[in-house]
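Form 12-C: Joint structure prediction
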Amino acid sequence: MEWEELELSTLQLDAIREVGNIGAGNAATALSQLLGRAVDMEVPVADLVSIYDIPFRYGSPESQVCAVLIRAEGDFSCNLIFVMEEGEAQGLADLLLSMDISGMDPDVQIQMRDSALSEVGNIILGAFLNAISMMTGYVLPASVPSVAHDMLGAIMDVVASIFGVMGETAVIVKTTLQVMDVQQEIRGNVIMVPDPGALAVLLKKLGVC
Amino acid sequence: MAQTIHVGMADLVAVKHPSVLVTLGLGSCIGLVIFDPKNKVAGMAHIMLPDSRESKSVPKPGKFADTAVPKLLQELLSLGALPTNLQAKIAGGAQMFSVPGKESGLLAVGARNIEATKKWLEQHRIPLIAEDTGGNKGRSIEFAVPQWTLTVKVLGTGTKEI
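Section 2 - Result
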């Protein structure tokens, strides 16, 4: 299969940004309900970037992050990734567990935090996906979440190589969510990564092709 | 003093002087080094995808395994390397996320990158003498010229030399 280079008009970028906006709004509400706290959301960006800049654009490639991914397959196949700085992810996990687990066996602590992070990622990304589904009427069954703790560059490799199949340009829809009224800063980014060719399907459905 | 050269995504660098060739945060990508220890020539490519035939254009030959291997070879030969002296080492090709039921496809591109890189090395009769590939962890790599050691750093497990 041969793919066409991704080209988008201003109107199309606006439409994609709007998808991000509604998706992130849904995600922020879900996170807020889960935590019982206010969650602030930044205005989403939809940037056209060179795939070669992706590993550097969102931080140092060697910075340690936690990422949760879910994959949807259907009318609009895509991967959604929730990325947090590792320390903030641990803070979020503790907030969710809402109990002191520091006395437990270290392996059990890791498992409990991972389980919490996997679930919070699942809920946030599921809410984001749900918004796309409601906007389009598409049925988008999601996979179970997959959690990784790694270097930012290695995580962003996934994003760059999926867009790289089509060409040299990626459209990065990124939204920042921030948990309010907590001692530690807790922020996370949702990144939408459509499969090669899937974005055109979405734009057509939204009437901006 | 050895010069540090960062090899970005889809980049390809060949050198004939003391250097440290570096790639940070390799996930599913492959860091390929080919070197001629006798003539002290070495190069690194940062391969993203297995096969250029799946894409419309190839603006950077370092991007695909099938184009990166011959291009790197050509650059090394132009710096005075001899084909019979060449050796290769590779690192990378991890699968960062595993989703049950989706063991193939783009999330598993790392495994296809490893396979394709090895295939093209074999086609060009370049022996692969060391590798640290696969798994589910990202890697940062440094190749020291002219020590010919590839240092692989994995988060949480430290470094090793291959």
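Section 3 - Comments
The mean pLDDT of chain A is 87. Strands of chain A lie at 39-41, 45-50, 64-72, 78-85, 146-151, 169-179, 186-194.
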